[in-house]
Amino acid sequence: MHAAVSKTISSPTGAAKAQSRPSVHNRQQSSRRTRQQPLHNVVSQAARNATNSANNGANGSDFFASGKEGTERQRLFNTIAPVYDQLNDQLSLGLHRVWKRMAVKWSGAAPGSRALDVCCGSGDLAFRLAEAVGHSGSVVGLDFSANMLTDAERRQQQREQLAGRTCRMEWVQGDAMELPFDDCSFDAATMGYGLRNELHRVLRPGCSVAVLDFNNAADNPAVDAAQAFFLEQLVVPAARSMGVAEEYEYLRPSIQRFPGGPDQEALARQAGFARAVHYPIAFGLMGCLVATKQGDKQ
Question: What are the residues whose beta carbons fall under 8 Å from the beta carbon of 231, sequence distance 6 or more?
């Protein structure tokens, strides 16, 4: 069942004001936010190092040149926004919807929850969180790409026209490395295709984050070869047909340098999570890291 979401714009302290028409809200960091502890950035730094090591990768593309990482990532996602959903559907044969529903389930999002989707893109995971939290819950989608958020707004409006409102939803333009939210302010979180986050801080005790991404299958030659074929022979040519090949050529070298499942589990625990499990998906081509914060869930 496809559920629509209504749009709200909330203050950093959580007060919400309903809006008749959704709009992207570029929120500043909360003045009440506590200082981030170094350990909370361990996973972020590892992922950033892995991504930066793909500099001058396929065909010499300089997507993440030193000192320009944020700007270049933002440019990349603004560029691919118009074809992002279409490519996801074509290249995964629609299976990305199944993987995202699995991630939402693993996040523990439930009726009445306040849920967060980081690097929300065009809103796929956020809309599935909305279905999980229902009328009594709320969802925040954060991304640094204005074009992606504009697309998410458009999709939200379409869903509202078809099925009405389901829960409060807020779109926030911001940095996943510096989340503009108070400590312990979310009951569940998801993140698709990225591990650059400080989600430990903003999750409430006992709550979980599910991070969906391509899996580094270097320890399994057969899966690694299949993933290479998929990316180099299917993904890039399909992206080329839509004029965005260059923006997808970085994926293979980036994945090869990304932490594998066991390393992600170790990094999550080092970042302060009490439990962390990495689940291979789609025969190991994809993976989902599920990390739970210490404490009892309220």
Answer: 248, 251, 252, 255
